[in-house]
Amino acid sequence: MPFPIAALTDEIAPDLDTALATMVQAGITAAELRTVFGKNVLELSDAEAAAALEAVRRAGLSVSGIASPIGKSPLVRPAAEEEARLDRALQLATILRTDRIRIFSFYPADGTAPSALDASGDEVFERLRSFARRAEAHGVTLLLENEVGLWGDVPARCRRILQAVDGVGLRFAWDPANFLRSGVAKPFDEGWSQLSEWVVCAHVKDCRQGGEHTVAGQGDGQWPDLLAALAARGGVPLVMEPHLQVAGHSVGFTGPERFIEAVAAIRALL
Prior knowledge:
alpha/beta; 14 strands; eight-stranded parallel barrel; TIM Barrel; globular
């Protein structure tokens, strides 16, 4: 099946070598980096990033992407702060030999009320347009992830962002569990027709309506429908991010044993 599977290393273990060994055991082909050596990936020095790449390559894997926190911040903070983080992410992408960086769409200035979202849309669009232009110039694709409480939380607003940016520098990372937690009862039914043209990867994460995370297929994320639609257009990379033990604001954790369970579940669906 045309679905290469990657994983966020810190979902498995904080120690990179332990995580990579588990990934090899599970037949995973690539690593996505979020927290490495006890630091957020954007805080790594050049030498630390090179050491992380060497560890990944030593395990026989490649780096599929940088799971950055760019855009997971209040819109009221100066744009220059996130621009500096993007510049660093682009430098790290060169060191880590990857061309994909995950980003987000900002917390609205005045909370999450519809009026605040509508009022702040133009600023979100402009910031992400600028990000996409910078990434495109570096040969890098930014992957916008839908996330609870951010401007791009539900399909309609994610579509507005992608239409407004309208460039090859920004594409979409489909996360069905985050849609569910944002109140989208049927993520595939409600979102696929709006977003399919931009989807270039999917996060393997599922949950039930009450918010409990599950392996793919045991929640309400409509994984069979999503995989069938993706297969019909040639498939996309899948990134393991199950959150089976911890689902925090900026971190998730599954652990080695449950990670193996999560990989078996998505393979069974495939």
